[in-house]
Amino acid sequence: MPLGRRSPMAKTRVVVADRNVITRVGIRSILERNSGVAVVAEATSYDAVIDAVDEHGPDVLIIDLDLGDDTTAGLKLCEIITERFPDTKILVLAQTLSEMIVVEALRRGVTGYLCKDDVKADELGKGVRAVQDGDTVLGRGVGSLVARGLGSTRGQTEHLTDRELEVIKAAAKGMSNKQIAHEIFISESTVKFHLQNASKKLNAHRRAEIVHRATAAGLL
Amino acid sequence: MPLGRRSPMAKTRVVVADRNVITRVGIRSILERNSGVAVVAEATSYDAVIDAVDEHGPDVLIIDLDLGDDTTAGLKLCEIITERFPDTKILVLAQTLSEMIVVEALRRGVTGYLCKDDVKADELGKGVRAVQDGDTVLGRGVGSLVARGLGSTRGQTEHLTDRELEVIKAAAKGMSNKQIAHEIFISESTVKFHLQNASKKLNAHRRAEIVHRATAAGLL
DNA sequence: TGACCACCTATCCAAAAGGCTAGGTAGTTA
DNA sequence: TAACTACCTAGCCTTTTGGATAGGTGGTCA
Fold first, then answer.
1. DSSP one-letter string for A68-101
2. Chain A / chain B CB contacts < 8 angstroms
3. Model pTM?
4. Does position A75 have pLDDT exceeding 50, yes or no?
């Protein structure tokens, strides 16, 4: 189906992935009103996205990375898609902006990143066509975020290990190091160790800031 | 075609308030497909909601309380609507669930509370008709949240004062009490005082938990 | 006027957290 | 094999907290 650039006849074929019905219907309505685009499938889970892309071979995948409990799974998904289906461009349509997520997504081959709350109706169609043409589309505010993100971490956004996340989550619940140590069967020293590593990665210096940043980054 | 106390002819007239185009279009599509409902106006700001309700006198207002930077403004809006336009029922369609917001909304006359991510396409129409009929509609998870909310605070959700919020925000940035004191020109003791009061109100015992709860409640 | 509120301050002490250095294991990869 | 990673532990000392108690002001409202 996909041929060269785009024949003036062929509609842009899109798969929409979002856990939220309202959003899916909204995207479909907006795009189909604008008759250069056809939504060929919808998906609500990470697995369903792969199946849908595999089955329909769309030109563009519009996706909210936050399809499950684990946002990092969304990033992994992007990696899989770009690798296995290089002809399908990815346009992320995020609920919230997080520096870390944006940077990680772009690193995994995502070529468009818009924020739901900022996007205007006509921008959605434009964005789809632009990413289909191989352009990179970054919504309002996303661009500067990327610049900061890449600058501050010198091209290497460090990610938290499982243990670190586990400790941070416990800290967010107000537990002391001693309590956390007890909870997950490690020593208090280790808890402090994980928190210190996490604080370096998140560039935070107090546990309150650690949990705040982790929350803002959508990691909790 | 439902016919309770409503005439079988008359469509339910709805105003949709959400800052997000995609959501507005989605809600409109879903509801109008289901031909008992007509969306008569859309609004994207708190002021516009009042104007729209005043002008169209809808049966139901579907609203995402989070129309601006300040969620509490959304709560104030509910109060105004129920007072000035008692014939317009309010159905909140929230992005995220927060115990405090749900409880406060219900206390201000909201009769429906659904969560965007949980709602199924047919539930939206059902919800609208139910609140129009004067029923209270609480989405999955919302009910239990209310029970906990009302139980834990004995019917009185305490709210944070301006100063308390200010201190919490600073704490979230990783500042120590001393730094915060310096920043807002009060003594370190006062900072501790505010944090202690806040921790009682939020039922948290550590500053990490305070900022986490405040964040989760959409207060930051 | 008294009650109440948001706000401000102080002192005391024990507990917790922060920052450091200096080790260890198991598993993976170049 | 060496290098790297995630993970785990220890001790030391300082700073920051949490929690309690006990005062104060100015404003609002019945």
1. SS-HHHHHHHHHHHHHH-TTSEEEEEESS--HHH
2. 106
3. 0.79
4. yes
